[in-house]
Design goal:
Elements: H1 5-33, H2 37-57, H3 66-82, H4 84-98, H5 104-139
Helix pairs in contact: 1-4, 1-5, 2-3, 2-5, 3-4
Length: about 150
């Protein structure tokens, strides 16, 4: 059995699209980690609401919905009021998502996945920061308390 060249060529554009989507997701994680705690709570709440809105319409739509693009644009405008860096990262992520012509259900699943990824990345960043803080404290000479 030999490999066909057509399957290799077809995987190229799909793989590139997947890489761009992952890069956009990582940019969202970086932007999210840079936010203050209050901003993070607002962003998380907004994205949860957005995922629920898409899930509510998911029963009615099985194919590409132009409404999905409008909803993601509205979310971008709302995010821009909270934090411009996060809004820019969201716009790039949503743009990559929309290239696949998702249904409302697909958008809901993607947003929920992004929320999980944001929480995971934030936990990692906080853990690394805490480790660095402990390392710095261990290097400082101990002083006597008076």
């Amino acid at each position: 059995m030999h490999k066909t060249e057509s399957s290799d060529r077809d995987a190229g554009p799909q793989l590139d699209a997947f890489k761009r989507f992952i890069e956009a997701e990582v940019n969202c994680c970086i932007a999210f980690a840079r936010l203050t705690t209050a901003e993070r709570q607002k962003v998380r709440s907004l994205l949860k609401h957005q995922a629920q809105r898409h899930a509510a319409f998911a029963d009615d739509s099985y194919g590409w919905e132009p409404r999905a693009k409008d909803d993601l644009r509205i979310c971008y405008l709302q995010l821009r009021e909270i934090a411009k860096g996060m809004a820019t990262a969201w716009r790039r992520w949503a743009s990559e998502l929309l290239k696949g012509y998702p249904s409302q259900f697909d958008c809901s699943v993607a947003i929920r996945s992004l929320l999980k990824q944001l929480d995971y990345c934030l936990g990692w960043v906080v853990g690394v920061g805490r480790q660095q803080q402990l390392a710095e404290q261990s290097r400082q000479p101990l002083t006597r308390r008076q």
